[in-house]
Amino acid sequence: MTRVRPQWVLPLSLVVALLLGLLPLPPALQPLRPYWLALVLAYWVIEDPDHVGLGVAFLVGLAGDLTFGGLFGEQALRLVVMTFILQRFRARLRFFPLSQQALAIGGLLLNDRIVTAAIHVALGEPTLPGAFWLAPLSGMLLWPVVFWALDTLRQGRP
User: Fold this and answer.
1) Mean residue pLDDT across the chain
2) What Pfam families does this protein's entry cite (predicted)?
3) Does the residue 24 lie in any domain?
4) 63, part of any domain
5) CA nearest 45: which of 110, 103, 105?
């Protein structure tokens, strides 16, 4: 007997990720803010690839661009690149232990920062501060918690 996933979990998790990105943080912690949208989207690409793909990543990225401000389409591009890489390696990544998954997610988040830096360079914007590169570390450390929480909700476990 297969368990049916509650239909509200995917959209609610993406809305919560958007809200977590809006939470104010003290200036000292601002560089450590994880990219919540990327973490939540990565979970759904790994665990539910039939419903979450490049199109969803693009739409979620546009929603992030509208929510957070900034260059329209930047987050959409970043999330589509991340989703494409995840789709290519999903079969292997899905069966990694959570610690190895966290390292892979950290690499993806670092790649996201490289894409962001490339966009800033291409547009002639000022270079990003060194602390900008710390966020992938916090995302990597939070991956097991995000994975466990979303997996519990997706499978309908108490």
Assistant:
1) 89
2) MreD (PF04093)
3) no
4) yes
5) 105
> Which domain does 140 fall in, by range?
9-19+31-154
Q: What is the pTM of this model?
A: 0.89
**pLDDT(5) > 80:** no
Distance from C-alpha of 146 to C-alpha of 92, rounded to nearest angstrom: 19
Across the range 83-100, mean pLDDT stands at: 92
- Token readout for 98 is 């959570």
The DSSP result for 19-69, as a single string, is: HHHHS---TTTGGG---HHHHHHHHHHHH-TTT-SHHHHHHHHHHHHHHH-
How many domains does the chain fold into?
Answer: 1
- Assess if residue 2 is contained within a domain: no
Structure tokens at 126: 């000022």
